[in-house]
Amino acid sequence: MTSVLTGYKSAALFAAVVLFLTFFDSLRLTADPVVPPFLKHILLVCLIYSTAALSLNFVSGYIGQVSLGHAAFFGLGAYVSAILTLVWGISYWPAFLCAGLVAALVGIPLGAPALRVRGPFLVVVTYGCGEVFKYIALNLDITGGPAGLPGLVSPALGKANFTDLGPTGKEAFIVAALALALLLAFFTHRIGQSRVGHAFAAIREDEIAAAAMGVNVAYYKLLAFVIAAFFAGLAGSLFAHYLSFVSPDMLSSSESIAMLTMVVVGGPRSIPGAFLGAFLLTIIPELLRAFKDVVGLPFDPWLVLFGLVLIIMMRLRPRGILGADTVFHR
Amino acid sequence: MKGLCRVLLRTEQLTKSFGGLMAVNAIDFSLAPGEVVSIIGPNGSGKTTFFNVLSGILPATGGKIFFQDRDVTLHPAHRRTALGMARTFQNIRLFPNLTARDNLIVGRFSRTRSGLWDGVLRSPRLHREERENESRAGELLHFVGLHPQKDIAAKNLPYGAQRRLELARALACEPVLLLLDEPAAGMNPKEVDELLALIARLKGQGLAILLIEHQMRLVMGIAERIVVFDHGVKIAEGKPEAVRQDAKVIEAYLGAEEHSFVRRKANQR
Amino acid sequence: MLLVQEILNGLALGGIYSLIAIGWTVVFGIVGLINWTHGEVFMIGAFVGYFLVSIFKLHLLVALVGAMAASALTACCINRAAYRPLRTSPRLASFITALGASIFLRYLAALVWEPRSRGYPPTMNLDVLVLRLGHSTLTINTVQLFILTVTLVIMIFLQWFLTRSMMGKAMLAASQDFEMIGLMGVNVERLITLTFAVSGLLGGAAGVLVGILYAIDPMMGSMAGLKGWAVAVIGGVGSISGAMIAGLALGIAENLASAYISSGYRDVIAFLVMILVLVIKPTGLRGFKFEEKV
Q1: Which of A168, B157, C178, C218 has its C-alpha lying 20 to 30 A from C12's C-alpha?
Q2: Does any CB of chain A come closer than 8 Å to the CB of residue C278?
Q3: Is residue C204 part of a domain?
Q4: Cβ of A212 and B86 within 8 Å?
Q5: What pTM does this model have?
C-alpha cells in the first residue's frame, strides 16, 4: 500500500511544482515576471513528451517490443486534428478526441506486424512504417506537403482561447498537458497492476508460455499498440495546436528515436522513469544549445553527445535510471 | 460439470510434418477422464511435438484433435487452456523475472475475467479476483511445497523448485487434463518419489494426466497405460508390464542386436 | 526499349544495394545482430575514398581498396568498442548502443566534414557505349560499367572466400549454427571480427561506388543503411544469394517506379516491400527460418 501512496504523493508534488512555475507570475508577487516564457515552453514540451514516452511504454516497456516508429501515431494525431479543424471547421476538443481515436484505429494495422515478427525485425518494420507515414505526409495535398499546415486554431475553454488565458499564452497549454500526462500515468499504473498488466508481463517474459497459460497473445499485443497510439495521438494533437502548425518533421524517425530513448533512459515500465527520460532528453539539449551560444561553438554539441550518452548509458545501466523488474503486488 | 464425456481427449490421424520430416505420423490416441497415461520413446520420436500440437503451440498438419467432445484442431493455445488443458514444458518455461507467486497468478489467467476497465476503475470484480488469485496461489504453493519461496524470482529458484513451480502453474489453470513434459528430468530418486506422490494426489483428485517421461521409476509408479512412440508413430500401447516386454519397444530403445540379449537376461530371472 | 534501358540503369544501383545488403545479412546471420552502424561504415568508406581521390590524387581503384580497408577497420573497431562488451546483455541494450554509435558517427562526420553534399572529382573518361538493336538504342556509360564490374568481382571473390577458404567456410557454418562452431574449436571472437571486417569491406566498396554514381554527404548512411537492411530482409536474412538477387531487383524496381510512377515515392518502395515480406513470408526469398525450439 505504501508504495502506491508514495506514488500518488510524488505525483501531487510534481504537479504542484509545475503549477507553481506556471502560475507564479500570475500572482504578481514581484514587479517583473520571474519565470521566462521560454522556460514555460520547455516545460510544456517536456510534458508533451512525457505523455509520448508513457504511451510508448505500453509497447516497449510492458510487452517488451521495441518500436522505432512511434512518432507515426504522434504525428498522425497532429495531422488529424489539424485537418479536421482547418478543412472541416470542427471545433478543437472533438477533433482532439478524434485524433486519439484515429491514431488508435491505425494502431491495429501498425501493430499487426508485431504478431508475426519479433525483436530486431519488428524494430526495422516499425521504422519502415514510420518512414512510410512521413512520405505520405510529404506527398499528399491535404497534408500540405513539406511545409505542413500552418495557422492551427488554439484550443479553447468555453469562449476563451488558450492563448488568451494567462500572461504568456502558454499557461493553459501547460495545464492541459500536465492533466494529460498525469491521466496517462494513472491509467498506466492501474493497468500495470491489473489482469491486463499480468497479460502484458507474461507476454514480455515468454510469449509461448503466456499462450499456454491462457493469454490471448495477439489480442493483448494489439491492445498495447492501440492504447499507446491513442495517447500518442492526443499528445501530438495538443502539441500541434500549441505550436499552431503541423509538419512532417513531427513524424520523423528522429522523433521516434527520441521517444524510444526517453523510455530506455528513464527505465522501461517505470512511470516516473518516462517523465525523467522526457525531461532529461528535452532539457539537456536545450542547455547544451544555450552553452553553445554562450561559448560560441560552431556546432551543436548535443548532436554528437547524444549518441555517446546512449552508448555509455547501456554500458553502465542498461535497464535505465529508474527501471526495475515487475512486481504485481502493491 | 465437465466429467460426463466418455473420452476426454481423442486424436484422429494426427500429423505434424516439418518440411519433409514427419515428426508425428497419423497418430490415433484417446484418453479417458481421470486416466493417467505415459508416453515413452527414444529421443526424437515425436513425443514433445505431439504435446506441442495437442496444446496448440504448433498447428497440426493433418488430422483432428477432440477435447471434451469438441473439435479443437483449429483452436489457438489459449482457448485450449480455457477449456481445461494445461501443460508444463520440457525446457522449463517459467516467467523468469516474475516471483513464484506471480507466476501462479498468471496461471490463473483463464479462470478470471477482469478487463481493461476493471483494471482502471478497480471494480469489485477486480478486487474479488485479486483475492481469489492470492488464496489460490497460496494453496498451490503449499501443495508443491514452495510457499516460503513465494517472493523469489523464478529465475533464482533452484532447478527442482522450478520444476515444481511449473507444475503448480499448470494447476493454477484448473485443468481437467494435465500434460507433463518430462517433469522428472534432472531429478534424483528422492525427488522423483516426491513428484510421484504429488502426481498420485492429483490423480486422486480426478485429474487426467498425460505424461512424457524417461524415468521408468515414475512411469511404472503412476501410469495406468503406456504408449510408445518411435519416429512419430505409435509402436505399442497397453498396460505397463505388457509394454515393457514388448519386442518392438525393446528394439526401438536398444536396437535389434540387443533385443536377443535382453530376452535372454529376462528369461534368466 | 525504354524499359530495358531503365532496367539497365537500375542494375548499377542494384549492385550497390546488394553489396550493402550482404554486409547486413552476414552480420545478422552469424552474430545475430542488426548492425545499425552499417550505414555509417558505408558513409566512412565513401568519404575516405573521396579524400584519397581528391586530396591524395590516387587512382580510383587504389582509393577503392583504401576505402574498403578503412571501412573494414571502422566496423571492427565498432564491434570491439560497442558490441563486444554487451555480448551477454539483453538484446535491447545492444540495439540502443548500435543506435547511439550510429548517431554519434553520423554527427561527428557532419562536424568534421561539413554537412554538405559533394561529388567525387572526375575519375574516368565518361564514355558512353551505345548498343544498337534494330531501331532502338541502349546506352550504358563507363561509370555504370565500372560499378557492375566491381560488384561482380567482389561477389565472385566473396563466393570463393566462403566456399574455399578455411575461415570463409567457418563463417558459412557459423551462419547455420553459431553455438556449435564455438564448441568445435573455432575462435569465435576471431570469426566475429572477420565477419565485421567482411561487412565493412562490402560497405566501403558500396560507399565509393555511390560516390562516383551520385554524391556523398555525412547523412547518407541512414537511408542507404536502412534500404540495405530492407533488401537483406527481402532476400531473406542470412542468405547472401538472396541479398544479391533482392538488391538487383530493388535497384531495377526503384528505377522503373521513378520513371513510370513518380520519383517522390522512390524511397518508400523498399520499405513497403520489406514490410510486406516480413508479414507474409518472413524468411524472404531464400532465408533461414528462425524457429524457436519449444
Answers
A1: C218
A2: yes
A3: yes
A4: yes
A5: 0.87
